[in-house]
Amino acid sequence: MIELFKAFLFGIVEGITEWLPISSTGHMILLDQFVKLDVSNSFYSMFEVVIQLGAIMAVVVIYWNRIWPFKISHATGFSAPRGIWRFIDKDTFIMWIKIFIACLPAGIIGVKFNDLFEKLFYNPTCVAIALIVFGIAFIWIETIHKGHRAHINSIAELSYYTVILIGFFQLIAAVFPGTSRSGATIVGALLLGVSRTTAAEFTFFLAIPVMFGAALFKIVQFGFVFTSTEVVIMVVGLITAFLSSIVVIKFLMKYIKSHDFKIFGWYRIILGILVLVYFLVIK
Predict the structure, then answer these.
(1) Strand, helix or coil for residue 152
(2) Distance in angstroms (rounded) separating the CA atoms of residues 263 and 245
(3) Which of 128, 172, 181, 255 has CA atoms 20 to 30 A from the CA of 108?
(4) Which reaction does it catalyse (predicted)?
(5) Can you tell me the mean pLDDT for 88-117?
(6) Whole-angstrom distance, CA of residue 4 vs CA of residue 236
């Protein structure tokens, strides 16, 4: 029961921190310092990535009508779409092309050097520094943008050049835990003149192939043999991550309609300082 409670706690933390720009990986690393799951190192390495599937399923459920590209057209006549285009929403299809392009930097470089990045940077000090640096970035960007209107207000308006640049910002998060994948892509999008709502939505959609790919990679790497306890821990973590993500995503989209991201910047800075003090001074 204690291990199930721990899995429940990991799922809650994942669901909250995956979508708020405060770094899910960073929080999971820090949580692991205080709440240790009684599992093997190889299982935990897989678990902390696969648990993200629960979070990403929340995006799929909430935005299903926006992300599913196959829709039957009932139009008839000379101007009706022909062939395969009758079953594909062209705007959604183009959006997925943009998402694929934005995934390329992290997909190519991040996967190739994943083990090296984990060895070099997956530690509390690097997490704390990344939390502080990107916290400052959020505050700075929101300050200089105050009073300025975004010139990109929908995903359809994102150019291919813009999405590849956002993809490189996502790569920063793949290298440095504590940066936050959502935080890095949102910072990049804001710098490029994208509105907060569009930046957040594109970040959500961008997470779908990234997380599914990362989870599949970790499962294959671990193998498909699980104990009954490991299965239960996975299920509890996935369900709690899914349910908490539903709440957090709806909250964030409502919040940013009338607020900026500064509060998350200040949170990151304060947390980063506390982490540095604990691990460099107290521990």
Answers:
(1) strand
(2) 19
(3) 128
(4) di-trans,octa-cis-undecaprenyl diphosphate + H2O = di-trans,octa-cis-undecaprenyl phosphate + phosphate + H(+)
(5) 86
(6) 7
